[in-house]
Amino acid sequence: MIIGTAGHIDHGKTALVRALTGVDTDRLKEEKARGISIDLGFAYLPVGDGGVLGFVDVPGHERFVRHMLAGAAGIDFVLLVVAADDGIMPQTREHLGIVDLLGLTQGVVALTKVDLVSPERRAVVARDVRRMLQTTGLESAPIVPVSSHTGEGLGELRDRLLAAARAADRRGVGGRFRLAVDRCFSLTGAGTIVTGAVLSGAVAVGDTVVVSPAGLRARVRSIHAQNAAAPRGVAGERCALNLVGEGIDKRAIGRGAMVLDPLLHAPANRIDATLRVLATEPRALAHWTPVRLHHAAVEVAARVALLEDAPIAPGASGRVQLVLEQPIAAAARDRFILRDTSGARTIGGGRFVDLRAPQRRRRLPVRLAQLAALDQDDAGEALAALVERWPFFLDLGAFARDRALGEAQLDAALESLPHVRLAVGAATFIVSPATLQRVAAETRAAVEAFHRSHPELPGLAPARLAGSVQPRLPQGVYAAAIGELAKAGSFVLESGAVRLPGQRFFLDQKDAALWARIAPCMSDAERFRPLLVKEIAEQLRAPEAEVRRVLKALARQRTVVEVALERYFRRDAVEEIAGIVVEIARAQPGGTFSAAQLRDRLDNGRKVAIQILEYFDGQGLTLRRGDLRSINPRRLDLVARAS
């Protein structure tokens, strides 16, 4: 478990951590000279069952709140420190507000320096603290009076921390690995070391990781988890990773980077989110307000685009789009904090909803409904809502990546969800059975209408159908859906066209009459040397374009075959020639033959013989080696079909 301190400057946070652990977390020379914490400090407390409590000591000065925010990444338990002599101070309230915005509900209040005040003063401050905690996630947190000087209350505080550690759940262990980097340095003989809280998943020695958003690949040489050498680190621990790889050094990795599973590397710079504005803000948050965004250990400039009509009033919540100056590595459902551009005050905070937010049409009702579906903690509930609303399909890999879900977590989310998987290249999409049936019904209506209007054509191309069928799916997703429907027998997908099962093709009266005139040009006597389209048109004194159109329609019906440009053969003639080619090859000692041998057998001229062989090359029946060819035994099915 990771425990983070919070509280005003000089309220005794560092002294309290030292009293609990024996470690002075002020490591910088300036910190020791000035007697205040400036940057993050770290300490560890071994517990009896072999576990270790990690402490992150944060600075309390208002100038260093950004460091406090970096330290708050990944903490499980809050140690809110309030000095009994000073009472509640400005940074006490600001730190508490940040803790509440980060969604932390487990913690304890340490009422420090009680040796300096009377019992009456203790009681007054304790009442003030209890009143301050109302309506926050720490409303029921216990208040423990302590003194780092006399040791009063330290035993009770330590016991409460140990009890909380025993009761803590392992958060995010099943997810994919993410570590928020808060320090990076070099060690002689080891190389580059990064430290930070493991936000989700686990990492082991030898694993390949990516430093995001830079995209640097690295290998984990060794691990220290909770201040001890370990073979692996898991969520809920502070870890130090020794990284090796091209471009990996302390100059390339800074605070705010994220070390993660390579599958999660997809930086985002436009994020839709839910935002709660603190009640202490002097005015409502307006559209396009410039802010400083804090997420995990990173800080970046951003603008807030409102997704609702009115500004967000103090104490209210709303949906926003965060437009970042630089991309960050994040996950959906992560918490964030917004501060003003001067760093003087905290404005509010919330959770990321969609890391792939659109720039245009971001306020459409269908888009806002999609955000409502995405804005659910349970992945299974989010999936169930998403597949039933616009755009009616979901990239499953992108959903799992943006939520940092492991395979087991994704399988569990899909277990009770009726869905159809559609493979599009390396990606997997899902749709609901109802959506697939709607696509089937609309496609059937469109194809039936096409068959009535164009009985001579085999069907419609999936790309053309995708643009007219509702719901309108991307071409790749639609084609995959039609493929699934074809497997079920709802459609026939052949030669790049979708048709209904049992559909028979025929020419209209005019085209049939023209085909009756063309057919003698491909009679048995002429079947191995048919005329070109232009020559047929001249011989029949028919429009060349009409002859070409009818032959193309017959080719789509598989009655004729365009063996070469503008030269059509009867299909049975092509199949007969395929058998002859195999016979010629088998009669040769080496199984190879020339175009001249086919020419002599067919008596159709060298040019036409070469055109036929080039067609068979394209079909895979023949294999060319220089001027000779041989038969591809893997494609003898072409001849078998002919037989």
Instruction: Please state the CA-atom Rg, rounded to the nearest Å.
Output: 36 Å
Report the span from N to C terminus.
Answer: 74 Å
* Beta-strand percentage range: 25-35%
Q: How many β-strand runs?
A: 31
- Helix percent reads 25-40%
Low-confidence stretches: none
If you had to describe this structure to a student in words, what would you say it looks like?
The protein is α+β, with helices and mostly antiparallel strands. The chain contains 20 helices and 31 strands. The strands form eight sheets. It has a six-stranded mixed β-sheet with strand order 2-3-1-4-5-6, sandwiched between helices. Helix 8 packs across helix 10 (407-414). The chain is elongated.
SSE order and pairing:
Layout (H helix, E strand, L loop, with lengths): L1 E6 L5 H9 L7 H6 L6 E6 L5 E6 L7 H7 L5 E7 L6 H12 L5 E6 L6 H15 L9 E3 L8 H14 L10 E10 L3 E10 L1 E3 L3 E5 L3 E10 L2 E3 L1 E3 L3 E7 L13 E3 L7 E10 L11 E7 L2 E9 L10 E12 L6 E5 L6 E9 L10 H10 L4 H8 L7 E2 H7 L4 H8 L5 E5 L2 E5 L1 H21 L8 H5 L8 H13 L4 E3 L2 E3 L9 H10 L14 H8 L3 H13 L3 E5 L2 E4 H17 L5 E2 H8 L3 H14 L2 E4 L2 E4 L5 H6 L1
Parallel strand pairs: 1-3, 1-4, 4-5, 5-6
Antiparallel strand pairs: 2-3, 7-8, 7-15, 8-14, 9-13, 10-11, 10-15, 11-12, 11-14, 16-19, 16-21, 17-18, 17-20, 18-19, 20-21, 22-24, 23-24, 25-26, 27-28, 29-31, 30-31
Q: Descriptors for this entry?
A:
single chain, 643 residues, alpha+beta, six-stranded mixed β-sheet, six-stranded antiparallel β-barrel, 20 helices, 31 strands, 33% helix, elongated
In short:
Helix content is 33%, strand content 28%. It is an alpha+beta fold and 643 residues long.
